Amino acid sequence: MIGWSDASIWTIIIVLGIGTFLIRYSFLGLLGGRDLPEWVLRHLRYTVVAILPALVLPMILAPSAATGSPEPARIAAAAVALVVGYLTRHGIATVLAGVATFGALQWLL
Amino acid sequence: MPSTTTKNTFVAGIRTALPFAIVVTPFAMAFGAVAAEAGLNIAQVMGFTVLVIAGAAQFTALHLMLDQAPTIIVLLSALAVNLRMAMYAATLAPHIGAAPLWQRLMVAYGNFDATFAMSMANYEAEPDQSPPEKALFFLGTCAFLCPIWFVASYLGAILGAVIPAEIGLDFAVPILFISFVAPALRTFAHVAAAAASIILSLSFAWVPYNLWILVAGIGGMMVGAEVERRRAKP
Prior knowledge:
- The complex is a heterodimer.
- Chain A is mainly alpha-helical.
- Helix content of chain A is about 75%, strand content about 0%.
- Chain A contains five helices and no strands.
- Chain A is flat, with a radius of gyration of 20 Å.
- Chain B is globular, with a radius of gyration of 19 Å.
- The mean pLDDT of chain B is about 90.
- Helices cover about 75% and strands about 0% of the residues of chain B.
- Chain B is mainly alpha-helical.
């Protein structure tokens, strides 16, 4: 890779690997089987629904790899997936609804 | 027979993960192809894939390296993307913190968005499982998805960009995440947490090194917890 020696690339890979593992192990190792206070548990009930939307939004609004600009098809497909997932409570149905909407709109537009 | 039940949670984890190969495969192939095209050799591509095993952080590191950013910035930005996984570890602790150390170490290795979200949905649907049973369900999802991650990344690296960008496969990941979030919006508190996360991620998009993810995530968790507390009051 231009501008990077093999040694510096491997340094990045190994430091990222160790750092990421320590982040992932952190509380799982430190807390063990200890009982957590109710107010902590109350916060932890919302991890999935609080963190993933923050990751999703930039991906939907970001320019697509193909066109280099935000696409209405992506926003519409995400909205359809959200509604279908909320109503059906079914993960695979959600993916299929989102992909079908995206495919159909790309074909139409 | 406890051994039978334990085995079943591992198989149940594999079965739950099966359909998501459709999303993981193109994502991993895309990393392999982009990394190889950027000039990493196969060993380095696989080093990222196997040792870091976190797609978003891998892409972040790769893009910053292509921009010739200083090493320390590459490391800090990629690790900041992964800080959310500390919240995943804390969330898993009440469920599998009491599981054997070897299980917790393996869960930590395979703790990424998809395996975490699938396992949490399982724990909420079947809360009476023992810690080892819950850990084995998690490891079942990993046992299926991790090899796919490795092989698809390798194929992407040697085959190059066989999947044209126009197909829009980069849209698979947000749809996958929506499929984890939408069915989990069970109460008003869950909806409030997700809405707060979206508003905060837009408001704090300027925070450097991807730390806005953590601001939005923790802020969303606080809103969810507070709404729950207020609604629980008599």
